Amino acid sequence: MYFAPTPGASGVAEAAFTFLFSGYVNHSDIVSLTFTWRLFTIYIGVIIGMIIFYGKLFRNHDKIEVNKLGG
């Protein structure tokens, strides 16, 4: 679903998820389920990746500063 040939995926993954699960979930719950699915599959991974990236970036920045000072 993430490799849909549309600009920015344009909601294709969400539409496919909604279509696939609409037979199993109440129609009143499908929108919140779709947003929750997107949160857990994409955004939590992005947040964890940002934390790790910035942690390594600043850790390496400290090492570079120490090396410049001759330590």
Automatic annotation (TrEMBL):
What topology does the record note for this protein and the membrane?
Answer: Multi-pass membrane protein
Tell me a Gene Ontology molecular-function term this record carries.
phosphatidylglycerol lysyltransferase activity
Q: What is the catalytic activity of this protein?
A: L-lysyl-tRNA(Lys) + a 1,2-diacyl-sn-glycero-3-phospho-(1'-sn-glycerol) = a 1,2-diacyl-sn-glycero-3-phospho-1'-(3'-O-L-lysyl)-sn-glycerol + tRNA(Lys)
Q: Which InterPro entries match?
A: L-PG_synthase/AglD (IPR022791)
Q: Which GO terms describe its biological process?
A: lipid metabolic process; response to antibiotic
Instruction: Choose one Gene Ontology CC annotation of this protein and give it.
Output: plasma membrane
Which Enzyme Commission number(s) are on file for it?
2.3.2.3
Q: Which domain of life is it from?
A: Bacteria
User: What sections of the protein cross the membrane?
Assistant: 35-54
- Enzyme class, broadest EC rank: transferase
- Kindly indicate whether the keyword Transferase belongs to this entry: yes
Query: What is its subcellular localisation?
Result: Cell membrane
* Keyword list, A-Z: Antibiotic resistance, Cell membrane, Lipid metabolism, Membrane, Transferase, Transmembrane, Transmembrane helix
Please state which protein family the record places this protein in.
Belongs to the LPG synthase family.
The UniProt function text for this chain reads: Catalyzes the transfer of a lysyl group from L-lysyl-tRNA(Lys) to membrane-bound phosphatidylglycerol (PG), which produces lysylphosphatidylglycerol (LPG), a major component of the bacterial membrane with a positive net charge. LPG synthesis contributes to bacterial virulence as it is involved in the resistance mechanism against cationic antimicrobial peptides (CAMP) produces by the host's immune system (defensins, cathelicidins) and by the competing microorganisms.
How is this protein named in the record?
Phosphatidylglycerol lysyltransferase
Q: Which organism is it from?
A: Sinanaerobacter chloroacetimidivorans
